[in-house]
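Hi W.,

Here's what went into the run:
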Amino acid sequence: MTWVNVVVQGLLLGGLYALFAAGLTLMFGVMRLVNLAHGDLSIVAAFVALAIVDAVPVNPLWTLLVVVPLLFGVGYLLQRGLLNFTLRGNDPLPPVLVTFGLSIILQNLLLEVFSADSQGLDAGRIENASIRLSDRLAVGWFPLLTLVTAVGVLVGLQLVLSRTRLGRSFRAVSDDPEAAGLVGLDHRHVFAMATAIALATVAVAGLFLGVRTTFAPSVGPTRLIFGFEAVIIGGLGSIWGTLAGGLVLGVAQTLGAQLSPGWGVLAGHLVFLAVLAFRPTGLLGRAVPA
Amino acid sequence: MLLEVDRVASFYGDFQALFEVSLEVAEGETVAVIGANGAGKSTLLRTVVGLQDRATGTVSFDGRPLEGIPTHRRLGLGIAMVPEGRRIFPSLTVEENLKVGAVRDRPGRWDVGSVLALFPALADKRDRPGTLLSGGEQQMLAIGRALMANPRLLLLDEVSLGLAPLVVRRIYETLPEVTAAGATVVLVEQDVGQALAGADRVYCLLEGRVALQGRAADLTREQITDAYFGLRGPG
Amino acid sequence: MTEGSGEPQGGAPVNQAVALRVQRATLPSRIGLGVGLAAVVVLALGPLWALDSVLRTLISVFTLLALAQMWNLLAGYAGLVSIGQQAYVGLGAYGLLLFADTVGLPLLASVLAAAVVGTLVAVPTALLAFRLRGGYFAIGTWVIAEVYRLVVTNVSQLGGGSGLTLRAASTVNRTTRLYLTYELALVVGVGAVVVTYLLLRRRLGLALTAIRDSEQSAQSLGVPVFRTKFAVYLVAAFGCSLAGAVIYLNLLRVQPEAAFSVNWTAFMIFIVVIGGVGTIEGPIIGTIVFFALQETLSGYGAWYLVLLGAVAVLVTVVARRGLWGLAADRTGWSLFPVQRRLEERW
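Here's what came out:
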């Protein structure tokens, strides 16, 4: 495998990480909430897709039509019904505790319902087909589709934030919830919309991850960590930063894995720690008020 | 009466800021609430708009008690406040700050175009981040943002705070146009002269109670000074 | 709260000074102290009256109590919500292996040395982790714990993925080792409670309360915020490493997946949240509840953890100050009084 090929594979993986991390960035940007159950929710999405595919033999990608709206609704209800109550006051503890508790609940529920076995979503021919770009460089259809989807979703998110009324609401509520109330914004609803959109993106990410790799109930936290690293490497408070961070992480992991199979994940961790040590605001980030 | 405040007491935690304050505003009037720092003027406005955690008594708008109605829905009813300190959204441009004021889509004459016509100083800065303006321009933007909701009742909290007298005067010069369009205005002011010049009636608060009320034209300087500083007690 | 602070009593003149003193102990706390001391003595005599299996359970109870107190110190008092304390449990375990098997120190010394090593590792860890805040700090600590786990897993001398067994343990008679570990665990558990209490009584306690209420205000008043948080983090690292070493002195088999498992932190969090964050009595109550639940629900597999998670979520949202908070609100008791009152001096 040439180094160019490795980097390209890394970028394709990184796109998926960026897609996964987008929801984290959105939730943190709008309401300063770090959702520790983010990874587990992507696993839930994959299991729902699996259940549908077991009942109705279709290509897993079709399940997006069900899973995305489902997680959108779950996100809205979760924020409105539970997480909003943890955001009252400036205590950092309740949101961490509740989302961590949620993570434990989801992992173990999935364990009881589905067993601990690794599962995979089979996307059929599209998974293995590849495009030949040159004699030494082949790019898989599916990873390319993933990258395109990831960039598309991120661009869409950025457009929502900058051009739409909802995006203005997000930014206003994030700046000053009380003043936002004065202009007629119900921050409980705006927060819930942010989580709804975040979980919708997690559904897409979870599905694509489920096709690309295997998944199991206990894998959520690992994904959360990758998403978090992508956010920090890229820089807090920036969707483009999350894209950059995801790409860097993907490349770091694949380069590391080239050197030695067990070192891929560790290489990513080391890059993350290096960014934290030498450039804490991230590659593209602005300092976020504590 | 468009606004009726009936024996309202308002608290910040255990600290009581307002004691049995009563006040009324007829539609179309401009009423000024004056008083020294800490007299409870801003607390009164916050109570009307629903931001106080704990308040007793009744606030009625157009005959309808507002108890239990959250702040964002009061905006929908037609009550808009320009808060103390402007509180412009830093992540939004000037134009976006105005647009976000119209979130409730209330019909009326105020839109981005007419607001920028009222405050021409903002027109060529529409794409600038909202907080990258001078104090006076931010105040205009805050007022414009509130106008975008086409309110029936406009509450102005300490518009003159931190601004040069010339700027303050220019802002107050736009007020007649606002009321001519039909808005009822309650303004809280430390600048007594400006308050009296612009208002039909005046309430003076002292340590959380109404110390003096009456038509602006009827009150003497001496009466106001006494009430303002509490030199001879209320009434 | 202050009695006789210059107000006239009877016909006494206004400016007659009244002697005051700063007092901390209350009647419930004095009773609590008595009961506590008695309990510690009874527990210390454990080997005389308890079955081996009971002693083993108590070792788990004491070490988990120590872990919970440390997490409580970090999150409840210093506002540092860490999901990475399992790093120190693992470091304590591997430190024990290193010093007892490789270096050849006696068991007790190995345990202490392991705790020191954990504390040393905490220094660069804190410097990195403190660059993050709130929820991101939480995940950051988790990532760092994962890094330690991966490093250990990839080092074959430390047993790699399948782990190592503590060989030095076989040099001591089994019953003696059990009793030794038990007494050590009791010291660690009680010690964690006592040390936390003593720390909070001093200026550190006031500093922490100030930081917890408002970091910016505390800083502007001259409270050395960074140094204080750093010191607390090191204390917690020491405590967790010490507890980790004792835990594995009992369990003997050290595997990276288990020693560095985030479940350690999950248990700490559960105990502290249920018992009451930010109180010293809370983790004690929480540990009891935790073990009671564990005994009754052990047959239900993963549902047990679902229930733990659900209860923790519920308590956080509904009764933020936990079981002890509910009790203290009603009775006004404080068994470990860290608040100071002004009392007249007789």
